[in-house]
Amino acid sequence: MASLVKKFSLCILLVAFVVSSSEASSYIYLSEDSLVNFIKIKDRNLQDKKIVDYIKLRFQQGPENTIPEGKTEVYEKLDKYQVDDREALKYFIESTVQRRLSKLPEAETAMVKAIDQASKAKADFLIYSFISHLAFIQTDRGNPIGAIYSYGLAQKQALKLNEPLLQVYLNINISDLYYKLNLYSQSLYYLNLAFRIKEENKIKDDRFYTIISYNKAENFFRRRNLDSLQQCHKELMGPNNKSYKLFTYQNRTAYYISILKHHYAEAITQIKELQANKKYVHNDLEKQNLADAFYLNGQADSATTIANQLLVLPYSANHPEIKHHLYELLGKIARDRGDYKLAAENFDLALKQSEESLNNTTQVGNASAQIKIDKIENTFTDTAEKYRRERLILILVSITTVFMFAVIALLYRSARQKRHYEKLLYDNKKNELAFINSHEVRKHLTNILGLVELMSESKDKKQEFLLVEKHLYDSANKLDEAIKNISDKLSD
């Protein structure tokens, strides 16, 4: 057993993010220490995403006989590393295992507990993921009302996370629920919405191209729209496709086309060959389609056998919409054989299933309308919040602008005053220097020039020099002092 688990851990596996008929794939690589590596991721939402993908791969896709040992191992790792959301993740594992074992009530109970733990821990991604999985379980249990309500809650959480990729997944899932209720227009609406979100947010993942094309093909087949079905089949055969179920999608839509072209014998051959092909992934409606092909090909006994086999299946695989179709088929076969009593009984049973289906559809419509109202309210709230933020930003910008103008005005005024005071100071110094120049410098300079001129006119220059020497020296000293005074004034 241990070696089997180890081999399983070391394999490169592909995991699908289940969206029923579409099954959007989310691929991850598992090594021996994958879980530990995911646990060590610091970003909480990213950590939760990786661990959830690991759990889905380990317990949805792995060998069933490794589940008990796998649970023990994962629980021990979550406890050992003190993972913040470990209690919620443990309930998620339990729910995943119970769903794998077709114990849907137990799976739903565990998932509700997981959601409660995630809500207490405010683990936003886990809340989104767990509510989405709850919707899957409710769909399996034939509870479309609960499923559509859960999808509505998941939508709110996806908007809160602001991750367009999650919104794409969610709209594909909602589309699949409407498809199962035979509400094809609504199903196509959500598929188109998923594609638009993908394109607007430039999500480069060709798997969505494949998933959306295939889901549209399912709707067009049920609506007997051959042209649109052929277009979807052509898209699935093109190069821009990525999905581990591409072989299944291509071959299933091929036999759909045969049925709508009334090539029933060819369709029967195609379905039987696919049932024997290990690459082909079967779905719940495969045998129903085969029964229809047998009936339309005139092989009523084969159609009756398959219909009766399907009617004894559990409710989880046999919702009112499916039973209505099967009882109606049996009624047509009995009518064609002239057994009108049996035909009436089968048509009556079909009518009862139709009433139950109609009741579910009506309630789903009410829930869906409420979801749209909630979405509009959320949009209005978001818009109001956006306007409130923009208003606050505008007020802050206005206040900042006024403050800046005030500061600029004060700086300008201060600069003007400074220039005015500097001019006054300059004028004052200029006048003072002019006064010194005219009254002191020129006075002493004039004295010196006069004494020099006096000496130059004297016949006895030596005698004259001795007489004026002291006056000349005094005047020169006073001139020097005056010049120094001007220099000091200029330095101030």
From TrEMBL:
TPR repeats by residue range: 324-357
Database matches in InterPro entries: TPR-like_helical_dom_sf (IPR011990), TPR_rpt (IPR019734)
Signal sequence residues: 1-24
Keywords noted in UniProt: Membrane, Signal, TPR repeat, Transmembrane, Transmembrane helix
SUPFAM superfamilies cross-referenced by the UniProt entry: TPR-like
Transmembrane spans: 392-412
Name assigned to this protein: Tetratricopeptide repeat protein
